[in-house]
From TrEMBL:
Residue ranges constituting the DUF6533 domain according to the UniProt record: 26-68
Keyword Cytoplasm listed: no
InterPro entries linked to this entry: DUF6533
Stated name of the protein: DUF6533 domain-containing protein
Residues annotated as transmembrane: 22-41, 62-82, 94-119, 126-144, 177-197, 218-236, 242-265
Keyword Chloroplast among UniProt keywords: no
Keywords: Membrane, Transmembrane, Transmembrane helix
Pfam family, one: DUF6533
Source organism of this protein record: Roridomyces roridus
């Protein structure tokens, strides 16, 4: 669409439609967040409202409540009948900066998750922390630049369509705020996939790695699609009906927050079934290399193995060599070790 070929009245009408689309998206995101909160509140109370405080718990609660506050602030900014220019400028600037901070919280949650998976690799941990710090510093820098260049414009009223709320100029190169985050999420998912697929022979029978790869893939898809929408929309300056919602609706913030909460609840649910915590579950990498199933009592893990003897594949801690060169099927749990005769 070539805006130069349109009349001022047509351009104004498109701007109003874009602002209305952004407001509708904010309402939809608020409703989605509220629905997600209500259906997962029981799990949140079960896994995060009790117990010792740690980084994982703090980050989860921050991610749980900061993004909804951002959506509500955005809805207020773009719904008030006659907001003052000062309120609009501070409010919209806060939306941009708080959005980057919210994404940083989600990234910290994932970094901790992957951190446990590479307990024996200091180089991987160092590279991951360096990337996390660099990405967030860069994103904050771009968010402050976008916020400082923001210009509040007078409200527009059309004879047919009236859209209340703040009206601001569309920032140039808005996509730069989110591109570093996409790079970091790609790195974290690649590390998770590498850890899960490192031992392909046992992957199909390793439920922990299956859960990590499945949840990580789902989360990465949400992040990729959300940032892709925002990036493409920010380029479409001649299509205000798409460009304005992509910039001002905080769409990636709400979607990634919901997806991250689901991932955290999923891993804590699995840890609870095994009678352990998240750190133990992710740190015990040897557990991820063997097929296991829950035992008869809470917290008990049973490992069944039966395979042909191979020197480079046999794990001494969970196998016994027979006189015929084969491996006797064993059953193990966190509380002991049994042979078939004693089971």
């Amino acid at each position: 669409m070539d805006l130069a070929a349109l009349t001022p009245a047509q351009i104004r009408s498109l701007d109003l439609q874009g602002a209305e689309n952004a407001r509708i998206m904010l309402i939809a995101l608020c409703c989605l967040t509220l629905y997600e909160y209500l259906i997962t509140l029981d799990d949140e109370m079960k896994y995060f409202w009790t117990g010792a405080w740690n980084a994982s718990r703090i980050l989860f609660l921050l991610n749980r409540y900061i993004p909804p506050a951002i959506s509500i602030l955005g809805l207020i900014c773009f719904s008030l009948p006659h907001p003052s220019p000062e309120f609009c400028k501070r409010g919209v600037q806060s939306l941009f900066v708080a959005g980057v901070v919210s994404l940083g919280i989600v990234q910290a949650m994932l970094v901790i998750r992957v951190w446990y998976l590479f307990a024996s690799s200091r180089a991987t941990r160092l590279a991951m922390i360096t990337a996390f710090v660099g990405v967030n510093v860069l994103s904050l820098y771009f968010s402050f630049r976008v916020a400082s260049s923001l210009i509040i414009m007078p409200s527009l009223t059309d004879t047919v369509l009236h859209v209340p709320g703040c009206r601001a100029t569309r920032p140039d190169k808005f996509w730069r705020m989110y591109l570093p985050s996409l790079v970091l999420h790609t790195l974290l998912y690649c590390l998770t996939a590498f850890r899960a697929l490192k031992n392909r022979r046992m992957f199909k029978q390793a439920p922990i790695l299956k859960r990590l790869l499945r949840d990580g893939g789902f989360f990465y898809l949400v992040v990729f699609m959300s940032i892709l929408f925002t990036t493409i929309g920010s380029f479409l300056e001649d299509v205000p009906t798409v460009n304005v919602p992509a910039i001002f609706s905080s769409f990636p913030i709400a979607t990634t927050s919901i997806a991250a909460s689901r991932v955290m609840l999923s891993i804590h649910s699995l840890a609870a079934k095994l009678g352990s915590d998240e750190a133990w579950l992710l740190n015990n990498v040897e557990l991820s290399r063997v097929p296991w199933r829950p035992g008869a009592t809470e917290g008990e893990i049973i490992v069944d193995r039966a395979m042909t003897y191979e020197d480079d594949e046999m794990d001494d801690w969970c196998t016994e060599e027979s006189h015929t060169g084969s491996v006797v099927s064993l059953k193990m749990s966190r509380v002991g070790r049994w042979t078939d005769e004693t089971w």
